[in-house]
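Q: I'm writing up a methods section and want to include an example of the input and output format. Could you take the sequence below and give the corresponding predicted structure tokens, formatted cleanly so I can copy it straight into the document?
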Amino acid sequence: MALLEVQNLHKTFGKTEVLKGIDFTIDEGSVVSVIGSSGSGKTTLLRCITGLETADCGKISVGDRVTFDSTDKRKLTKAEKRENQLCTGLVFQSFNLFPQYTVLRNVTLAKELLVKEECKQQKCPRTEIKARISEIEETAKQIIDSVGLSDKLENYPCELSGGQQQRVAIARALMLSPKVLCFDEPTSALDPEITGEVLAVIRKLANEGRTMLIVTHEMGFAHEVSNEVVFMSDGVIAERGTPDEVFDHPKNARLQEFLSATLRA
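A: Here is the clean output for your methods example:
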């Protein structure tokens, strides 16, 4: 059953058409990797799916919730926008951690703000707010432990390696329980020797049945972890299929050229 469905997605910046009618689905528990050259539209696709950019045309659904529909001219409420955004999570290539906060605070902050706003609207007593914040911290500690950083709770981002920072970013995204977890080149800012520790965390999430959409330049990892691979070129999906089909038996000429250049490099 499709958990994420993207239909006829278009996005233009100025006179440049970046997405030219994207259609695809991701089944619940599946991992889809998106590959392609720089400028093919991969990051823009992720940003539209996660609500960081607004597409010009098309429709996006996560489960039974429509998070974007260009034909719906109704103005969404603040609460509706928030619920749409919470359907997906995005791990950036450049970490985007708050440098002034500890690892634990980076992971708990967004969830705490949501709970405090909810409690304010419901006029919850202080004891309930305190209890819920305590629960958030305990959950965060468990998630941080799951990415191998239980000994870094009180460290600041500047005290961590790039791989550790990216694992904190993954923990932060998991804290909001997104239905679809998206990654935008999660290892591109890392030194080769520490890339493996981040890929190991993503591999673990895949084995746990997380639904994930991964933009990556790690061809070997994409082949190993993906249920399906999508090749984007010039704003369209030029080819898609199983890892074996895409990597071992590519049909599209542009994909063949891309793989030849990538593997040669």
